[in-house]
Amino acid sequence: MRVLGVDPGLTRCGIGVVEGSPGRAVLVAVGVVTTPAGDPLGSRLVQLEVAFEAWLDLHQPDAVAVERVFSQANVRTVMGTAQAGAVAITCAARRGLPVALHTPSEVKASVTGSGRADKAQVGAMVARLLRLDSPPRPADAADALALAICHLWRAPAQARLAAAVAGVRP
Question: Residue 101 is inside which H or E element, if any?
Answer without folding.
Answer: strand 99-102
